C-alpha cells in the first residue's frame, strides 16, 4: 500500500497535506514541478494554490508516464474521495492483475509527490483542476471512454420520466427523483441484479452496448429508434443527452467492462529490444567513419559559401530554390541538406552577415573550427546538436498558418527536442555495447514515458469523436507515430547515425562518454541533474574518437590522366593548396582531384607561378609528376596574363595585335561590345569582371590589372560574417532547480508558513481594513520591549518605504534608537525595522510562544 501522507488527523486541504510533508517531500515537489518556484511562494497555502492552477497542472500531467496518467484518469471517474481499494478495482477489474497491483503504489506515490493527488489511502483526492481536465463530459470526453454517471445524465430529466425508467427496470417507484436515481445507480452497480437485467436483453441490444462500451459512449438515434435501442432506453441502459443523442451511463459501462476503467492498462514500461548484435569495435569503427564523413560534409558546405551563401528571405531562412542548390552541391536530399545547414547554424559556424543585401556566410568561428583536430571539430558539432531546440526535420512542413517552414527560419525551435535526444540515446545505452535497438521498441518506450508530450494540445488528448449512430462502429484511432515526440525520436535516430554517435544502429563509445554513461557495460540512464558539464563530456568523447579517425596524410598520388589521388584525409595546408589547384572529382575512402586549365589558372590567379606549382607537386607526390600535367601547367602559364583587362569601362590590351584581331573576329565576343582603340588595345562595353569571364569562356587566359597597370592577384580569401554567437536554445519551461535553490526555497516557504499560521491574541484595537494590527506608538514600543526582555515572538504590521503593507512574526532582541532588531520568522533571518513604520503589534497565543 502507498505511504500515508500524515500521522495525525487526515488533511482537509492540499495545503494541509503539504504542511504534513517533510522538507525532502517539499523539495521533491519543487524539483518535479519547477514552475511552482517562480517566484518562490510566500507559504504553503500559496504553494498549494499555485499547484492547482490550470497551466501548472497541465504541465505536470504532460510529464506523467502512461500508467501514472491512467491512474489519474481512473481517479477522475472514481468517487471523490476514493478509497485505495476502489482505485485498484478500477484498474485491475474483477479478475485482478498482479502487475497492476505491484505498480499502483508507485504511481499513487508519484501523483502524491507532484501534488496531483492528496489525502490518505482511505480518502484519495485528485486535485480539482486535474479532475476537470480528465473527468468525462460531453464537451471533453475522457480518455477512458467512460461517460457521465447516472446522476449526472439524469440531472435535467423530468421526475416522471425517471420513475418510468426505474419501474421498467423492475424497481419499485419512489416518491422523489433523488431516491429514484439512487435506486437506479444501486441496480447498475449490483453485479448480480445487473447480470439478470442484461440476460433479458436481445443479442441486437447487447451488440449496441458492445459498440459503446469502450467509448465514445455517445451515439445518435433516429426519432423512431430500433426496438433494441428502445429497449435499452426504456430501462435506463442508454440515457438521453438531447433529442437525438444517447449516452451509456458510467455504471453500465463499468459493469460491461468487468470493472475496468481502462481498456489496456500499461503498468510496466515497454522494454527496448535489440534488433542485431555487433562487436563493439565494429560499431565504433562504423561510427567513426560517419563522424569523419560528417566533418567532410560540413567543410564542403561552408567552403562552397566562402564568398557568401544564399540570400536571407524577408521572413527569415533560406528559399526553397537555394536549399535545392545546396542539396545538389552536396549530392544529398533536400531534407539532409536542411539538417547539415541547421547543424552548422546551431554550432555557430554559419550566420547571416547583417548587411543590407543580407546573405548567409561562415562566421569567424568557422576558421577557428578548421584549425582544431578532427575529433575536437566533431565534438564542437555534436554537443550543440544535443542541446539545440532547432529541429531540421520540420523543414518543408507547414506552420499553424499553413506557411512553409524554411531552413534557418525562425519557426523551427521545439523546446522538447533536447530532452527527446537525450532520452533516445540513453535508451540505446540500456542495451549491451554493440547491440542495435529495434526502433519501434524505442518509439513505444518514448510514447509510454510521456504520452501527452508533443501532442500539440493544451491538455490531455481527446479520444475519437462520438459515432453518428448508436449502431455504428467507433472511428479509427489516430496514428501514434504522428505526434511531435515520436517524430523527434525518429529524427534523432537518423541524425545520430549521420553524426557518428551511433554505428549500424548501436550506440558508440564516444556517444556514451558524451552522455556521461559507463563505457564497459550498459547501465541505467543517468540522472539529468547529475550530469557533468557538457563541454567536459564532449572533451572525453573527442578523446575516445580521435584514435578511431583516419590519420591525415601529407602526400598524393599523381596519375597520368591529370588526376591526383589522396589516399586519406589530407593535412590542412596541403588540402587548402590542392583545393585551389585542382577540382574534387569524387570522394570516399580516397579523394580524387582533377587538374583542368581552369583550376590551374585559378592557382596562377592566386599569385603562384608555374615553377611554384611544379615544386609543390614534386614535394607532395609519391609518384613522379606526369608529363601531361607538367605540359598543362606550362601551357596555361604561358598564356596567363598575355591579355590584360582593366577599367575604362573595361579594356583589353595585348602586345600581339593578331590575338586582338582573333577576338574581334570571334562571334562569341559580340556580347562584350568590343572595339579597337589602338593596335594593342580594345575597349569594351562590359564591366571588367564580365569581360574577364567572357574571354575565359572563349578559351583565353586573361589577367586583370590595376589602374596602375599591375597584374591583380586573386587570392582565395573567404568572406566572413561579423562575430556571431550560436543560437540560444528555447527553454522548455523554468530550468530545473539545483540543490542550493531547493534548500533555500523550502526554508523560505517553511518560515513564511510558520508566520502565516501562527495563532495571535486579539489586538487591543480593532484591525483596520487589510488585517494589519493597529496600536498606538507607545503601546507598540512597550510591547516590543517586553518581548525583547522575555525572548517571545510578536505579530506586527509593517509598511515599507514603497508603501507595501505586510504582516510579520518577529522575535525582538534589541530595541533602541527608534529601531527594533529581531529574528523575522517570515523571512527566516535577522532584520531591523523602524518603529515608525510598524502599524501595530499583537502578542501570539500562548501555545504559539
TrEMBL record:
Q: Which domain of life is it from?
A: Bacteria
Concerning Pfam families, the annotation shows: Helicase_C_3, WYL
| Region of interest (Disordered), ranges | 452-482
What is the protein name given in its UniProt record? DNA-binding protein
Q: Which segments does the entry list as coiled coil?
A: none
Recorded GO MF terms: DNA binding
UniProt KW keywords = DNA-binding
Q: Where is the WYL domain?
A: 779-841
